[in-house]
Amino acid sequence: MAEEKEKKAKETKTKAESKSETTDQSGKCKNSEHENVAEEDVKTEELEQQLAVANDKYLRLSAEFDNYRKRTLKEKMELTKNAGEKILSDILPVVDNLERALASMEQSDDIDAIREGIKLIYAGFKDFLGRNGVKEIDCQNNVFNTDEHEAVTKIPAPTPDLKGKVVDCIQKGYKLNDKVMRFAKVVVGE
C-alpha cells in the first residue's frame, strides 16, 4: 500500500515537473503550480493514511462487537440451561425426607409418628416454596376476585354476609412473586 502511494506521488511529481519544464521553455515558469501539486499530493497522502486508520478501527470494532454478541449469546444459553439448578438442589432435602418417610412406614406401625413425620415434610416443602417466592392465595371467606380465583360453581350463600364471597376452596391457588401461577378453584356464594 505504501509502495502504491510512493508510485502515485512520483508520477504526480514527474507530471508536474514535465509541465513545469514546458512552461520554462516558453519562458513562463510558474513555481506556484508546482508547489500546489506537491501540497495536494501531501494532503492526498495524509487523507489516505487517515482513511486506512479509520478502516482499521472500524474492522477492529466490528470484530470486537461480533465477539461480544457471541459471548453474550453463549452466556444466555448457559444461564437458561442451568436456570433451575438452584431450585432443584433446594428441593432435594424434601425428596430425601420423603424417601425416609416411605422407608419408616414399612418398618413402623406407629401411625402417629408417621403422621408427624409427614407434617414435618409438608412444613419443609412449604418453607421451600416460600423461600422461592411462591405464596398460597388466601381465599376462604374472601370476596370473589377474578384476578386470583376461578369459580367452579355457585351455591346459595349459607348466610347473607357470604354473598359474593368464597364459600369453599376446592383447589388452592399459588402466586410466584405476585404473579398468579395457578388460580384458586372456589365455590362462590350467591
Structure in words:
The chain has helices at residues 2-26, 31-81, 85-107, 111-131; strands spanning 134-136, 149-155, 166-171, 174-176, 179-182, 184-189. With 190 residues, it is an alpha+beta fold. Strand 4 and strand 5 (179-182) form a beta hairpin. Helix 3 (85-107) packs antiparallel against helix 4.
Topology (elements, then pairings):
Layout: H1 2-26, H2 31-81, H3 85-107, H4 111-131, E1 134-136, E2 149-155, E3 166-171, E4 174-176, E5 179-182, E6 184-189
Parallel strand pairs: 2-6
Antiparallel strand pairs: 1-4, 3-6, 4-5
| Share of β-strand residues | 15-25%
Shape: elongated
Number of strands: 6
Mean of pLDDT? 85
Number of helices: 4
Low-confidence stretches: 22-29
Distance between the termini: 89 Å
The amount of helix comes to 55-70%
Quick recap:
The protein has 190 residues and is an alpha+beta fold.
Considering the chains and any ligands shown, give keywords for the structure.
single chain, three-stranded antiparallel β-sheet, three-stranded mixed β-sheet, 15% strand, 190 residues, elongated, alpha+beta, Nucleotide Exchange Factor Grpe, Chain A, domain 2
